[in-house]
Design goal:
The complex is a heterodimer. Chain A has a five-stranded mixed β-sheet, with helices on both faces. Chain A contains five helices and five strands; from the N terminus they run αβαβααβαββ. By secondary structure, chain A is α/β, with parallel strands linked by helices. Chain A starts with a helix and ends in a 15-residue tail after the last strand. By secondary structure, chain B is of the alpha+beta class. Chain B is 16% helix and 48% strand. Chain B has five helices and 19 strands. In chain B, the strands form two sheets. Chain B has a 16-stranded antiparallel beta barrel with strand order 1-4-5-6-7-8-9-10-11-12-13-14-15-16-17-19. In chain B, a hairpin with a 5-residue loop joins strand 6 and strand 7. The longest helix of chain B is centred in the N-terminal third of the chain and has 26 residues. Chain B starts with a helix and ends with a strand. The chains are: A alpha/beta, B alpha+beta. The interface between A and B is large, with 34 and 40 residues.
Chain lengths: 154, 437
């Protein structure tokens, strides 16, 4: 019996460890002045609203290729929108000459490496990909949003 | 005497118009570094594009429909009416300087290359909150004016025709704008002031005309959050020239009538001449767009000292519901010009020969008809659906029912001009596929 309880405990522990490792986090270069961001600031950065941000938060966002599941998960958790709607949003901004979509990294490793080398870049990656050259400024999995809502300002 | 800065700058912008296009296109193709301050910066050029392939069929063979006064009109079935293909180059010169060139191929009345260039500007951003642009800029009068050719960026097959076709003559301009935007409460506040000139080849009911507008001044404010957007704008422009031989002939003929016969003749003759007349456009819009439904509505009022451009009110309201990637919507739009001015009565002396009396009556009739037919009076109701079946592709289908009042079909053309004098209606069914790349 104790053996079964131990197995069940280990099973749930393994899930938690895996979830923690795959938590989506926002990273900046370790030398960047900012240590924490809130959700509104992350949304403003990734949705092209640089004007709403203070000077120290003027960072260049790095996006990932649409083929990566993590991208779909990121926008779903950040603004509760799927990638098709995000693409339509950026089509409006791009072709009205207001803003360009974020630059794209080819892989998660590429995104981490870019942030490691540039103080003015920001990226979203699984927590398991974080290295010593970057720091976590926001954790997306700590965020909850209303069902069927696009309201996410704190 | 103090002069408005836009008046002082008008000759400069006219001169600038062609130069800026040539300069910026050259910049795209050759990646030339424009200023010495960029000599050590890498010029980054990103190309992107959009296209819409559309097929539409209208049921009224007399009535020719067009999405814009600058585009050709078609009755019956048409592929060209709502089809576009566009390319854009975003050229980043430095952190503060960039340039955008956008060319949209569509079925324009005039085939000059100039009529296909929508953006060709150089932008300086002193800070993230302010920007100054100079060159060819798309007008920002209504919600969708800045991306009306990008079908994948909005819900409908086309922006509501009753509303968006009216001010399409001023759809872009050569000049400059200054923009300031900042975070406010939970959203973004934006204010923009623009000055410039513009010209367009348009086709009215019977003939083509080249219009030039000078001293264009526009002010717009916008506040938007994730769901809500509210905008207001006001635009003024002065007609520089308007080549329309029929109108010129009519004005000359009216001016030749003695005041004793037609007391209003001098005023009407002067009012028919477009040069120097002013036109104003004011608009107010609100939209609310969530992940499950949307609502858009805009109202606009135009006025002019030019008799053939009477005060006109335009409005539309549209709402839709979203089922995942499928959106269904309904739109109702309206455009109506105020009554034509009273041109008075002819006092025909008995001593005038019958032929002369007939000619004067004919001139009076032609004048009244010209003023009457310069008005807009139409309503349309539409239902439609769009399916975003891919990250970049959208399929749309829309059914419109349009009602046009007698003699008020300025936003249409007629295969048979007699039809203009009668109320007309038509149904238009359109399917389209839009993509961004």
């Amino acid at each position: 019996m104790n053996f079964i309880k131990t197995l069940i405990l280990l099973f749930f522990l393994s899930i938690n460890v895996e979830t923690l490792a795959n938590n989506l986090v926002i990273i900046v270069n370790k030398d960047h002045a900012v240590d924490t961001l809130n959700k509104k600031q992350v949304i403003d950065i990734y949705m092209g609203r640089q004007a709403a941000l203070s000077k120290e938060l003027q960072v260049k966002p790095i996006d990932l290729e649409s083929t990566l599941d993590i991208k779909r998960e990121f926008y779903q958790k950040l603004v509760n929108q799927d990638l098709r709607k995000i693409n339509a949003y950026w089509a409006r901004l791009l072709f009205s000459a207001r803003a360009k979509p974020p630059m794209k990294a080819e892989s998660i490793e590429d995104a981490v490496n870019t942030v490691s080398k540039s103080v003015d870049k920001i990226a979203y990656v699984p927590e398991s990909a974080v290295n010593d050259e970057v720091k976590v400024v926001f954790r997306l999995d700590n965020v909850t949003f209303e069902a069927n809502s696009y309201s996410h300002y704190e | 005497m103090f002069k408005r800065p836009d008046i002082l700058l008008t000759p400069f912008f006219i001169h600038l118009k062609k130069k800026i296009c040539i300069l910026l296109v050259a910049l795209v193709t050759s990646k030339i570094i424009l200023f010495s301050q960029f000599a050590y910066a890498e010029v980054d050029v990103d190309f992107s594009g959009f296209a819409t392939l559309s097929y539409g069929h209208s049921t009224n063979d007399d009535l020719k429909i067009k999405p814009s006064l600058k585009n050709n009109a078609y009755s019956g079935s048409s592929i060209l009416r709502d089809s576009y293909i566009g390319g854009q180059a975003n050229i980043t010169l430095s952190d503060n300087w960039d340039s955008v060139v956008q060319v949209v191929l569509q079925d324009r009345v005039s085939k000059d290359f100039d009529n296909y260039v929508e953006y060709a500007f150089l932008r300086y951003r002193p800070s993230s909150k302010t920007s100054i642009r100079i060159g060819r800029i798309i007008s920002d009068y209504y919600f969708l004016t800045e991306y009306r050719s990008v079908g994948a960026a909005y819900y409908w097959v086309r922006p509501p025709q009753s509303f968006y076709a009216f001010a399409s003559t001023l759809s872009n301009y050569d000049g400059a704008d200054f923009q300031y935007q900042t975070g406010l409460l939970k959203g973004l506040f934006n204010i923009k002031a623009s000055i410039g000139t513009t010209s367009a080849s348009v086709r009215n009911l019977t003939e083509e005309a080249d219009a030039e507008f000078k001293d264009l001044f526009s002010l717009s404010v916008k506040y938007e959050t994730d769901k809500l957007a509210i905008r207001a704008s006001h635009t003024e422009a002065r007609v520089g020239s308007f080549s329309n031989p029929s109108l010129t002939e009519l004005s000359l003929a009216v001016s030749a009538v003695p005041e004793s016969i037609w007391s209003e003749a001098a005023v009407i003759s002067k009012g028919l001449i477009p040069e120097g007349k002013t036109a104003t456009y004011s608009s107010l819009g609100i939209s609310y767009d969530t992940s499950t439904w949307f609502f858009y509505s805009e109202f606009s009022r135009s006025d002019s000292t030019w008799l053939t451009s009477p005060p006109t009110k335009l409005a539309y309201i549209s709402a839709g519901y979203k089922f995942d990637n499928l959106t269904i919507y309904a739109t109702s739009s309206y455009a109506s010009s105020s009554s034509a001015i009273d041109t008075g009565e002819l006092i025909l002396p008995d001593y005038l020969p019958p032929e002369s009396q007939a000619q004067l009556n004919q001139l009076k009739y032609a004048t009244d008809l010209s003023l009457e037919q310069a008005r807009v009076g139409q309503r349309s109701n539409s239902i439609g659906a769009n399916w975003q079946f891919n990250h970049h592709w959208v399929l749309k289908a829309q059914l419109d029912r349009m009602l046009i009042d007698a003699n008020r079909g300025l936003l249409f053309e007629y295969n048979n001009l007699d039809s203009l004098t009668m109320e007309q209606s038509t149904k238009v069914f359109t399917v389209s596929a839009s993509v961004v790349f």
